[in-house]
Amino acid sequence: MTKPHAADINRVVLAYSGGLDTSVILKWLQQTYQCEVVTFTADLGQGEEIEPARQKARQAGVKEEHIFIEDVREEFVRDFVFPMMRANALYEGLYLLGTSIARPLIAKRQIEIAKQVGADAVSHGATGKGNDQVRFELGYYALNPDIKVIAPWREWDLTSRTRLIEFAEQHQITIPRDKRGESPFSTDANLLHTSSEGKVLEDPWEEVPDYVYSRTDHPEQAPDTPEFITVDFERGDAVAINGEGMSPATLLAKLNDYGKRHGIGRLDLVENRFVGMKSRGMYETPGGTILHLAHRGIEQITLDRGAAHLKDKLMPEYAELIYNGFWFSPEREMLQAAIDHSQHHVTGTVRLKLYKGGVHVVGRKSPMSLYSEKIVTFEDDAGAYDQRDAQGFIKLNALRLRLLGRRGGL
Q1: Interval 65-118: pLDDT, tens
Q2: Measured distance CA(39)–CA(114) in Å, rounded
Q3: Which of 31, 115, 126, 326 could form an S-S bond across to 132 if both were Cys, CB 3.0 to 4.6 Å?
Q4: Residue 143 and residue 43 share a domain
Q5: Using one digit for the tens of pLDDT, what is the confidence trace for 326-347?
């Protein structure tokens, strides 16, 4: 898509955090495009006060009726995190996709607000080097093919943190103290995770400094006594902890508390970005890590082998679609339909042991269980399984191998 002409932009909806970058973007949009800016600030459970964004938007001249601040935590977990958890999604075998899964919800609300206020463009604060620009914009175009997109980091000449701060000072934009000069690293947070990257993390040989971690206590300082909890599932979604029913966002927040206390969910990862480069990041996903392993635990006794193995084959493709920003694509929806169908009987309870950074499934039970102690027992099974049947089974499966062996191999 080509850069929009200023004359074509009358009103733009900006994904606005109230931080330095998006505050500069707000002013830059007003100056460069001579347009009206509408701000959208999403409470995704990032753990910090978002109301100050309202005052900052007011100070920048945004009309009161064009300042949108919304609590979308329940929608985020119910409609985005939980469907992803049903798939056991991990990008490159490790990453629980905490940043990736938040972007389609923000994009969706921006497009909805744009329609509501009659805006002809949307904007975001993602840089031209990362994945988020792709995730935002694929979401925009999927939901409104004709929307105009303004990506300031790909247009302006504010190419460094110093230039950004100079612009802010020139326009009386509040600069947080910790943003003066070079910040040590950048972070992104929501109810599922916190990610940190840049600066002190850019050398993949150097261990992540302790001060980078914000969501989890150090595993070595975690309690010396294990803690046991249970998680109840219905049709693939967690619904209760220790028998207490909870809403999706409340449940994930509670698991975050357990994970923080026991130092669970830290990940140091060098990943392959969609745009082609490798990047090193540190992720903290305390509650999500517990939920992921609990879900796999209940699937162990409720999913048929064929369905379980097929899910595991589909999972990397599904995870890559989310990572690359294709949440609203037909292929993701097709995979989701298959995944959701597999969850009809994924109901029951998992018992977990939390201890010094580790999550261990130590028990599982379900009224839909396919596990049969009568059949699997090493004791007398009273005729439930005839072990002599295995001979024919093995011979049939060995037939092609024997023929190959007689020929002399491959």
Answers
A1: 999 999 999 999 999 999 999 999 999 999 999 999 999 999 999 999 999 999
A2: 10
A3: 126
A4: yes
A5: 999 999 999 999 999 999 999 9
For tokens 């969706």, the residue is 108
132 is catalytic: yes
Active site residue 21: yes
Q: Active-site residue 261, yes or no?
A: no
Task: Determine which one of 183, 186, 329, 369 is catalytic.
Answer: 186
Distance CA 84, CA 76 (A): 11
Q: Is the pLDDT of residue 232 over 80?
A: yes
Give the torsion sign (CA, 212, 213, 217, 221): negative
pLDDT at position 44: 97
Q: Which two tokens stand for residue 3?
A: 């850069």
The active-site residue out of 17, 21, 188, 237 is: 21
Domain boundary among 183, 208, 240: 183
pLDDT on residue 2: 64
Structure tokens at 166: 């100079």
Is 327 contained in some domain?
Answer: no
Domain membership of residue 116 as a residue range? 6-79+98-183
Q: Judge if 214 and 103 occupy the same domain.
A: no
Identified catalytic residue from 17, 54, 123, 132? 132
401, containing H or E segment: helix 389-407
- Among the listed residues 86, 103, 109, 135, the single catalytic one is 103
At residue 325, does pLDDT exceed 60?
Answer: yes
The domain tally of the chain equals 3
Tell whether 67 is covered by a domain: yes
Helix 103-117 to helix 132-143 angle, to the nearest 10 degrees?
40
Q: Could you read off the pLDDT of 166-223 as tens digits, one per residue? A: 999 999 887 766 544 455 678 899 999 999 998 889 999 999 999 999 999 999 999 9
Cα 16 from chain centre: 19
CA dist., res. 304 & res. 364, Å (int): 16
CB 336 within 8 A of CB 324: no
Residue 314 resides in a domain: no
Q: What is the DSSP letter of 91?
A: B
Same domain, 269 and 400: no
Return the SS3 of 358: strand
- Asked, for residue 325, whether it belongs to a domain, the answer is no
Cβ(43)–Cβ(253) under 8 Å?
no
Q: What is the CATH number of the domain that holds 357?
A: 3.90.1260.10
Q: Is 186 a catalytic site residue?
A: yes
